[in-house]
Write the structure tokens for this entry.
Amino acid sequence: MNKLVIENLSLQYADGTESLSNINMDIAKNAITVLFGPAGGGKSTLLRCINRLNDLTDVETMSGRIMMDGEDILNPATDTIALRRKVGMVFARPVVLPMSIRKNLTYGLELAGEKRKSKLEEAVERSLKLAAIWDEVKDRLEEPAIALSGGQQQRICLARSLAQQPEVILLDEPTSGLDPISTGKVEAALQELKKDYTIILVPHSVQQAARTADYAAFFLQGELVEYGNGDELFTNPQEQRTEDYVTGRFG
Ligand SMILES: Nc1ncnc2c1ncn2[C@@H]1O[C@H](COP(=O)(O)OP(=O)(O)OP(=O)(O)O)[C@@H](O)[C@H]1O
Ligand SMILES: [Mg+2]
């Protein structure tokens, strides 16, 4: 089943760069879709379209549609606050709030009006478990989140987005600053999460792309060069440019 259908999406920044060029992609539910390719390919730009974060950047022209459950996300009438609750995002550098671990998780819900203590408690435990960090922090929830290691902070950020009960999770190189053990924990958490969510991941390496992808999309200078089943794309790419990149001949 498709969660998102991207149709003829093109985007140009104010400096004239064509960062996405007529992208068409169906994105499956309950799977990890990776967007990979060399710097400047448009991967982050595409993620930012999916939760309308590009509203805040210097976009000159944008055309096409991104349908989620039958509604066009790009429609100016879309409630972007509600959209961003449904489509959570985790960035390369974990940005925890300067608050306790617990408060990092409940803050968004409280802003949204949730006051019931039991609901907040439940969200803390559920989201920390989903992000595979509950055991490491359950006895220190009142401590500042900033005191955790980078790998732990990244999983707190993932948990914070999960606390909002999103449907789609966008991750832009979430493990780029992490050691291999923390990276493994984040990847393992994603494998569990895909059972219930739609996950779109920009990996930090081709190796991570190959390890995690159910579906993989290769981006080069704004063009979607090849898109397909991860196993097939990494073992038997159809396009020469994909093959050159995955075999390390360029990029
Ligand atoms: N806010 C912006 N204003 C102007 N141009 C931008 C902006 N963000 C990105 N670009 C340009 O759009 C193109 C695509 O950038 P984008 O960040 O989406 O690529 P990327 O695939 O995520 O690259 P990386 O692997 O380096 O993160 C680049 O040419 C970049 O310079
Ligand atoms: Mg990027």
User: Anything to note?
Assistant: Residues 2-246 form a domain with the Rossmann fold fold (CATH 3.40.50.300). The chain has one domain: 2-246. The first strand starts at residue 2 and ends at 13.
